[in-house]
Write a sequence for this structure.
């Protein structure tokens, strides 16, 4: 090899490294970039006149369907079946069948692309239950209702169109009845923890850690229980910290539990202010995005809204007290813990908190007065809020476009892979009630379309995303810490946000009662990035370091160009 040639190779290698390095920080084509000011309000899309079934619970699957379900004890829904669970026929001509609620669906599967629902069959009642996705994408649904449903474990294995997948009941029951319990996927492969429930001050694992294992007492649930207000600590907020420990928030207090040793290892300060945050006070909570720049070790929790002290009793007398306006943020890693408080534009309860691919928090649905429970809330919150966690205090909330449809008790919401947010449900009554009430049963399905889907950002929206293993080829799961490649097209590079192209991985939640169980957003590390040809860009990303940071399972990968996200694609993080 000649000296010139060697030099040339050295030179190109160095240049490529520098080139790659620069590009990972940001790609810019010199255009002026994106201006959003005053244009963040978004819009609403009407999808279906009726889902037939109240969407009290909602979960997006990796087959791009959304599972929705209600209680089975709420009488006939608006989705009449030809056959009952178990196969016996239902007749529209039989007066008995027409009022028999087993002749109606109580769960549906929504196909996002076709904008259609098909019925699913439930045997026992999953009313006010909890859910988590397993590493293979199967939904594990736990408890709900009272009586027969409360100890049940059900599976829903998502399928492609026309495969007619349905609910399956597990042979193994829970140890305790779990009504208004919460669940979180743990970092051990495919184990979830189910915490609390009405008058149940314990937690348990599914599957069990060992043969014959029962539930574990958790005095914290006793201590936070307000027995004169139906608990005020039900549906506790659970978040998996990136050290594998579990953050549990109930009423106004919170702890960190080591689930392997069954030991409370931290007690955090009480959140300031009055009122309560958990059911039936029904505020909401979110784990803020975990960032690779802190090696995912800065873990911060946010709690917003809830009901005032005495709200339940007052609602019983027809008086609806104003809810809480305050939000608290606290870093739960490290050893200094303090709630930093701030205020939403209006009081809010019964709302959802969803993390958008931009890493902003969307606060949507809910009411300003009263609390959870039948007919206990008034004054629907029709305007969503966008919360930017990184802005200066006092400038973080933006009020978005309002809807005309009230979504209060028993409503739900979830982010879709195309960037829209699906909104369903709402029913403050024990049965399907459409007339002579302040807030009728709500079966209409809507989507909220955030600003980033506006036409004016189309050229900034990365598109044609494909995910490949490093070295090429289609992949079936990405192993922790390994590199993988994301290829996409960008017409125009955004120069807002320091020219940044960012990458995120999102575990979609199981949502109900304002909770988004297992929701998790990770900002991934980009190792190298290059323009390949024309508008094509290729980026080498690093999978999260461990299942503590991201439990094994399906995640949505999104490329965010100067604040404008692509449509998302599914990948699976898995063990080697
Ligand atoms: C996923 O795992 C669960 C529990 O082991 C099992 O019941 C289910 O059938 C599996 N689903 C798929 C898609 O393999
Ligand atoms: C709540 O709604 C009622 C009736 O719809 C209205 O009279 C009242 O002004 C509202 N209160 C607030 C604080 O918005
Ligand atoms: C990119 O995706 C769009 C659909 O979103 C498709 O029409 C187009 O052909 C794709 N382009 C390439 C080069 O793959």
């Amino acid at each position: 090899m000649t000296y010139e040639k060697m030099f040339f190779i050295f030179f190109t290698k160095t240049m490529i490294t520098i080139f790659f390095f620069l590009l990972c920080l940001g790609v810019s084509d010199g255009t002026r970039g994106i201006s959003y000011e005053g244009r963040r309000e978004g819009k609403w899309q009407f999808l279906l006149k009726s889902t037939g079934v109240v969407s009290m619970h909602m979960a997006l699957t990796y087959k791009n369907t959304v599972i929705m379900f209600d209680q089975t004890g709420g009488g006939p829904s608006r989705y009449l079946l030809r056959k009952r669970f178990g196969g016996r026929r239902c007749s529209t001509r039989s007066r008995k069948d027409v009022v028999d609620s087993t002749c109606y669906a109580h769960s549906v599967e929504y196909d996002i692309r076709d904008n259609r629902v098909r019925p699913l069959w439930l045997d026992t009642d999953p009313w006010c239950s909890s859910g988590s996705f397993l590493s293979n994408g199967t939904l594990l649904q736990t408890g709900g209702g009272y009586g027969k449903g409360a100890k049940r474990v059900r599976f829903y294995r998502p399928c492609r169109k026309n495969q007619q997948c349905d609910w399956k009941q597990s042979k193994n029951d829970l140890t305790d009845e779990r009504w208004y319990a919460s669940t979180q996927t743990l970092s051990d492969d495919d184990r979830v923890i189910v915490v609390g429930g009405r008058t149940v001050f314990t937690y348990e694992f599914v599957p069990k850690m060992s043969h014959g294992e029962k539930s574990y007492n958790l005095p914290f649930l006793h201590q936070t229980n307000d027995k004169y207000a139906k608990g005020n600590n039900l549906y506790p907020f659970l978040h998996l910290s990136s050290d594998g420990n579990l953050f549990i928030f109930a009423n106004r207090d919170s702890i960190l539990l080591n689930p392997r040793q069954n030991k409370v290892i931290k007690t955090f300060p009480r959140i300031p202010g009055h009122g309560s945050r958990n059911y039936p006070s029904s505020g909401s909570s979110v784990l803020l995005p975990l960032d690779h720049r802190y090696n995912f070790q800065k873990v911060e929790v946010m709690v917003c809204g809830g009901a005032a002290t005495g709200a339940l009793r007052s609602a019983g007398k027809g008086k609806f007290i104003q809810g809480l306006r305050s939000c608290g943020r606290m870093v739960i890693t490290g050893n200094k813990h303090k709630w930093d408080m701030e205020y939403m534009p209006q009081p809010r309860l019964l709302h959802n908190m969803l993390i958008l691919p931009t890493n902003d928090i969307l606060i949507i649905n809910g009411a300003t007065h009263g609390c959870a429970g039948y007919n206990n809330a008034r004054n629907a919150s029709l305007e969503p809020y966008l919360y930017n966690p990184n802005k200066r205090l006092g400038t973080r909330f933006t009020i978005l476009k309002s809807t005309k449809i009230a979504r209060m008790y028993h409503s739900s919401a979830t982010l879709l892979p195309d960037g829209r947010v699906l909104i369903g449900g709402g029913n403050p009554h024990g049965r399907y009630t459409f007339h002579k009430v302040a807030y009728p049963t709500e079966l209409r399905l809507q989507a909220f379309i955030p600003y980033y889907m506006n036409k004016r950002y189309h050229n900034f929206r990365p598109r044609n995303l494909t995910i490949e293993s490093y070295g090429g080829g289609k992949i079936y799961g990405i192993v922790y810490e390994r590199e993988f490649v994301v290829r996409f097209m960008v017409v125009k590079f955004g120069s807002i946000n320091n020219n940044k192209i960012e990458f995120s991985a999102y575990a979609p939640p199981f949502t109900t009662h304002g909770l988004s169980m297992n929701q998790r957003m990770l900002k991934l590390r980009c190792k190298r990035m290059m323009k390949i040809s024309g508008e094509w860009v290729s980026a080498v990303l690093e999978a999260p370091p461990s299942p503590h940071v991201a439990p094994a399972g399906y995640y949505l990968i999104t490329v965010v160009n100067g604040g404008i996200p692509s449509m998302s694609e599914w990948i699976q993080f898995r063990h080697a």
About this structure: Confidence is low (pLDDT under 50) at residues 1-22. Residues 77 and 509 are 25 Å apart (CA to CA). The first strand starts at residue 43 and ends at 48. Residues 20-38+457-574 form a domain with the Immunoglobulin-like fold (CATH 2.60.40.10).
